[in-house]
Amino acid sequence: MQTDKWKHRRKAFDNEWILEAFEELPSLFSKRMFGGLAVYLFGRMMMVLMEPTKTGRWKWHGILICTDHSQHTAIIDDFPALAPHTVLKKWLYIDSHHDDFEPTMERIAKAMARDDQRFGIHPRPKKAMRSLGRRRNRVSSA
User: Fold this and answer.
1) pLDDT above 90: residue 10
2) What is the DSSP letter of 15?
3) CA-angle at 32, arms to 27 and 37, nearest 5°
4) In 2-100, which ranges are continuous DSSP H helix?
5) What is the C-alpha separation between 27 and 127, in angstroms, rounded?
6) Among 1, 45, 10, CA closest to 27
7) Position 14 pLDDT exceeds 90
């Protein structure tokens, strides 16, 4: 029986079907981020499933595709339904109501599962993140 690595969380996301393409990959894990669900493969954050927040902070309902800005043109050439997100411009986005949402995300998921290097960002090392947080505290308390 397959293990559903992402179904242990309380909140289910509408677009979790996308994760089925990654079920057999041992590097798959997910965690909450921005009120959404960040999906990691091969040590990189690949995408964030987004839904409107209860507080109304944002009304996004779609997928953020994590990538370096330098990869935007090449990815958009292959997946024209994607566009830079209006707020998080460093990442690409597709709204779940887009006419080509499902076929686009199926193709993107297959590319990610093949470890297409255009996709994903490496998370900062935890030590660097803690150091950054301390630096911010020092600056804000001055």
Assistant:
1) no
2) T
3) 70
4) 72-78
5) 22
6) 45
7) no
Q: Name the β-bridge partners of 65.
A: 47, 92
Residue bearing tokens 């987004």: 50
Q: Tokens 């093949």 appear where?
A: 114
Residue 49 CB contacts under 8 Å (≥ 6 apart), including other chains: 13, 14, 15, 16, 18, 36, 37, 39, 63
CB atoms within 10 A of CB 22: 21
pLDDT tens digits for range 42-100: 999 999 999 877 776 677 789 999 999 999 999 999 999 999 987 787 899 999 999 99
Instruction: Give the DSSP H/E element, type plus range, for residue 65.
Output: strand 62-65
In the block, tokens 């839904």 appear at 51
Candidates 3.40.50, 3.90.1150, 3.10.50, 2.40.50; CATH matching 16-141? 3.90.1150
Across the strands, what pairs with 44? 41
